[in-house]
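Example record for the data management plan.
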Amino acid sequence: MRLFCLIQLVLLMFLFSCKSDDEVEPSTGSVMVHHKLRPFYHYTPEANWMNDPNGMVWYDGEYHLFYQYFPNGLTWGPMHWGHAVSNDLFHWKDKGIALYPDEQGYIFSGSAVIDVNNTAGFKNGTESPMVAIYTNHGTSSGLQVQSLAYSNDKGESWTKYANNPILSNPGIADFRDPKVIWHEESQMWIMVLAVFDHIEIYSSPNLKDWTKESEFGKAVGYHGGVWECPDLFPLTDNQGIEKWVMIVSLGGNESSEPNGGSATQYFIGDFDGKSFSPESSDIKWVDYGIDNYAGVTWSNISENDGRRIFLGWMSNWIYADAVPESGWRSGMTVPREVKLERKEDKHVLYFTPVEELDNLLDNTNEISQNTISNGFSIDNHPVITGGSYLAEMEIDVTKIENLTISFGNEVEWMKVGYNKSDSQFFIDRSNSGYVDFNNYFRNIIKCNYSPSSTTLLLSILVDQNSIEVFINHGEKVMSALFFPKYDYKYFRVENSSQSEFLHLLNLKAIQKSVIR
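Corresponding structural encoding:
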């Protein structure tokens, strides 16, 4: 018996001696609260698996969000379309399942439009038909085709078109994710479709009969993965010039740009109703973080306020089915307004949080500091311990060397920083809590950036298990998940130089918004 107890003691000593740094438990006497993980103001499903946003359309005062959904498990399964609606992009009401798998197969990604002129002939009441155009993935053949469904009651109920599919598969494995828009100049519906390594463009007078017009992308852009989830839309720049934007997501691997795995690129150019021509061969990214994929924009918003609003799936296919969320899995990014700017003779996109987010800020509970020279630290303030807040900083670029912003608790931390010597922002989540579910999760996330002025505005959104960093009004963005084991308690800003590097620092709590 003594020998047995001695062996047990040795084994226990060995196990504790091998424990990694991020697995160290809090010291005796510290008050640590287990973290809940679910975001406050980012959309998440009530339960089970969610991925790509689909069919995003505005109609009669409501933003409709459809999304890839598997109602029977926490990992990817036979795809349905989940459905939620909001009148402000943050207070979402769950509407259940809109589209179920059928004899054509699973319901993959797609889009939705409002057929104001009833070109498809589906209208049977006073409402303009809401038409969903989506991919069916054949359960036995594995082939993908494009299909239609329509609603005459604002998306409450759906009827699938009797003559589906509307676009048959030509013998290509990857043939999916139709995004449909109305092109006013040609008076035609336009579809952009992802076809393995490029985009195909189709036209139709009635949403039912489609003609292939052109192809785009085989010789341009990044090709480190299969092309998916395209979008096409016009924007007017700060000089009043209209250009067209093509967004394309691609599913990559650990060595893919810009930081590995899933990512989304964009092109700026011209569209004549048949073909898209980019103005530059430069590769541009929607997000330089690691957790923003398959994002597209809402249709029909021009009937509301004219903005172009983007939403992405906040995860990465490398580890999406293993993240430590309980009872639900995945969320969406914060909705972002897309703006077109001309900078140094080139066009670039800016992505900024929509102005509706301001309505969620708790202005009665905030932290504000002016002119900080030797760093800033705050502990156990309710803005920080609440886990959902906005941090805004006005930084003097001439007076920083190595800037680090960190938040965490006694045993875990997240870091965001800027290294001036290599002109690079970074996010370090290697000791942020639960990190062992995937080796890739520990990697440092990087974004090259050279400021064009001496003042830099940095906005950081934190929401329980996510961070979104907006650099210079959204000129570049970095989005990442993290999974704390315990509530974070502190927020710190440090700079290797002791000069007055911060002109302004504001931190405001963001109130819970998502409802079910």
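Summary line stored alongside the record: Confidence is low (pLDDT under 50) at residues 1-24.
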